[in-house]
Amino acid sequence: MDQSIRTYLQNLRSNGEKRLAVLIDPDKAGTEYLHRVVDVVNRCGIELIFFGGSLLTRYELDEHIRTIKSITDAKVILFPGSSLQVSSEADALLFLSLISGRNPELLIGQHVLAAPMIRQYNLEALSTGYMLVDGGKPTTASYISGTLPLPADKPDIASVTAMAGELLGLQHLYLDAGSGAMNPVSAEIIAAVRKVTSTPLIVGGGMRTVDQAVAAANAGADIVVVGNAAEKNPELLEDIAHNVHAIKVKTQA
């Protein structure tokens, strides 16, 4: 990938192409697991690895990212739960504003703390409107953030929230049911957001099957994110990647 990650994501959107990203939680990432997952990443042409989570109990970010980058050409993008999860070893960072909630720390507070490090490390910052969606049970993300997720049966609320994020200048949108969610973000929610926005759209949380990932991509997700399922069955990534990468839709973006 000889381009900025922002340009890569914009080109996916413009070309109607779909991609799978793997989310790796640093707290669950032992060396053996990293090698297993990255082996699958390399075999099926996955180009993006999201690295991070809402809760960090062991600070081994730099070490784990160095391990990943030593065995793959996939880009490592930080998915930070706080300003503590910034690493100079990564290729880029999702600069997440939690626009589904009203917690000022996650709208601007943590960003102020992280900004000097991001500049110092010369990290590519991908401004992202982050929206938690109810996945059927409380998740670590909703608990740690102290916010309520968007209702799963109210696509109109999701669409106007996404619209506001785009109007604020956020260049990417991320719909997330949360790690370990019972249900992924519905096709109705994804389609409603896709209809009113033109930014690259990332969707994750609760993806356990090929059908769920394909449904998300067909509904409008440009990037489908798989996390927990990859931890339990890395080989599932091969099937999901094959099916998601085969999708190409017409777009006017």
TrEMBL record:
What GO molecular functions are on record for this protein? magnesium ion binding; phosphoglycerol geranylgeranyltransferase activity
Q: Which domain of life is it from?
A: Bacteria
Name of the top EC class for this enzyme: transferase
**The protein's Enzyme Commission number:** 2.5.1.41
Q: Which reaction does it catalyse?
A: sn-glycerol 1-phosphate + (2E,6E,10E)-geranylgeranyl diphosphate = sn-3-O-(geranylgeranyl)glycerol 1-phosphate + diphosphate
Keywords associated with the record: Lipid biosynthesis, Lipid metabolism, Magnesium, Metal-binding, Phospholipid biosynthesis, Phospholipid metabolism, Transferase
- Gene3D superfamilies, per the entry: FMN-linked oxidoreductases
Residues the entry annotates as binding Mg(2+): 25, 54
Instruction: Report residues binding sn-glycerol 1-phosphate.
Output: 174-180, 205-206, 227-228
Q: Which Pfam families match?
A: PcrB
Query: Which cofactor does this sequence's record say it needs?
Result: Mg(2+)
Q: Name one GO cellular component term.
A: cytoplasm
- Tagged with keyword Flavoprotein: no
GO annotation terms (biological process): glycerophospholipid biosynthetic process
What is the purpose of this protein? Answer: Prenyltransferase that catalyzes the transfer of the geranylgeranyl moiety of geranylgeranyl diphosphate (GGPP) to the C3 hydroxyl of sn-glycerol-1-phosphate (G1P).
Q: List, alphabetically, the HAMAP family matched.
A: GGGP_HepGP_synthase (MF_00112)
Task: Give the UniProt family note.
Answer: Belongs to the GGGP/HepGP synthase family. Group II subfamily.
Name used for this protein in its record: Geranylgeranylglyceryl phosphate synthase
